[in-house]
Amino acid sequence: MRLESLYIENFRCIELCDIELSPGVNCIVGDNASGKTSFLEAIYILGRGESFRQSSLGQTIQHDNNALTIRARLTDSQGSRHRIGCHASRNSHRLKLDDQNETRRFDLISMLPLQHIDPNVHRLLEQGPKYRRHFLDWGVFHVEHDFFPAWRRYRRALKQRNRALRANCPKHQVIAWDAELVQQGEVIDACRRRYLDQIKQRLPNTARQLAGDDSLLFAYQPGWRGEDGFGFALANGLEQDLRAGFTQQGPHRADVRISVAATRARDWVSRGQQKLLTAALFLTQADILKSTRGVQPVLLLDDMAAELGENYRSALAAEVERLGVQCFLTFLSRESIPGVLKDTRMFYVEQGHIAAP
Ligand SMILES: Nc1ncnc2c1ncn2[C@@H]1O[C@H](COP(=O)(O)OP(=O)(O)OP(=O)(O)O)[C@@H](O)[C@H]1O
Ligand SMILES: [Mg+2]
Hints:
- By secondary structure, this protein is an alpha/beta fold.
- The chain has twelve helices and 14 strands.
- It has helices at residues 36-48, 105-111, 123-126, 129-143, 147-166, 171-175, 178-211, 230-236, 238-244, 265-268, 271-293, 310-323, and strands at 2-11, 14-20, 25-30, 67-75, 81-89, 93-97, 114-117, 216-221, 255-260, 263-264, 298-301, 327-331, 345-350, 353-355.
- α4 runs parallel beside α11.
- Adenosine-5'-triphosphate (ATP) binds at residues 12-13, 30, 32-38, 60-63, 332.
C-alpha cells in the first residue's frame, strides 16, 4: 500500500495541503505546534475513519470553517490505483472509497492498513489490557480472515446476553446466547493464538536489532478462567454474571502480558527501552502483514526522537528503512533526523503550511 498524493483542506491548523508523497520514507519537520501531528492525524483518518486524538471528526475542522476534506490517491499491493477520502462537517461525515456509494470504516481499514506509533507507545506495557487487545487484534484482523466475521457475531451475541443480564431476565434467556458466544469466541481465540505464534517467531530478531534484547515473553490470557474451555467457564460463571449484570468472561476480556525475562516489562526496563521494545512489536506486525499477505501497511511515527538518544533513534530508523514500507515520521528539527534517513523526502511545516523543498 502506498499513498501517492495527499490533499488536506481546513483540517486543524492546516488550511490547504496538496502534495505528492514518496513511496518510501517521508520526514515531516517543524517546530512545536506547527502541524506535524495534525498531518499524521489526517492520514490516520483516511485509514481508520476516526481520529487518534479522541476528537470527533467535527472537532478537527479548522476553527472558523464549516467542513474539512482529506483525500488521497493510493496504489494497493496488486498495483491497482484507488482514491479514498473523508469529508466532514460539524455534525456529520462521509467516507469514500473509489466510487462506492456507501463506504464504511471497515472498507477504509481493509484498504489502508495503518500503524501509528506515537510518543506514548509504551502505554502498551503500562496500561490496561484494552491497548494490548487492540494491538493484537489489529494484526489478527489483517492477517486472519476468519477473525472479523466471528468478532462481529460475537459482539452482537454479547450485547444481547448483557442486555438480558442487566434486565434480570430469567436464566434461560441469558444462556440462550451462550452457544453463539462460545462458537464465535473459539474462532476468535484460535485466530489470536495463531497470530501470536507468528509474533513470537519474528519478534526476537527485531527486538534484538532495536534494543539489543530479545528476551520478551508473552503470556496470552484468552479472557476466561480455567483450562476447560470457554463453554465450561461461561456456564460456570453464570451465577456471578447474574449478580454482576454483565458477562465477565470471554475473548472481550483477553490480554497479552508482555514481559522481559522473568519480570513484567514495565517493572524494570528503562523508558527508552520500553519505547523501542514496543516499537519492535509494531514493526513485527508490519513485517508479518507484509510477508504473509503481501500487504504493506503504512507507518506513522510521531516524534520518535522524544526520549530516545542517538543510538536508539538510529536503530529504530534503520529498522524502519529495512522494513521497506511507506512511512511518515515527524521531527522537530532536521538535526534530530537519524543519518540513515537524511536522503529521504522532506516536508517542512510552518504554522500549518506544508512545503517540500
Ligand atoms: N480545529 C483546529 N483549528 C485550528 N487549529 C487547531 C485545531 N485543532 C488544533 N489546532 C492547532 O494546531 C496546531 C498544531 O498542532 P499539532 O499537534 O499538529 O502540532 P505539532 O507540530 O505536532 O506540535 P508538537 O511538536 O508540539 O507535537 C496547534 O497549535 C493547535 O492548537
Ligand atoms: Mg505533535
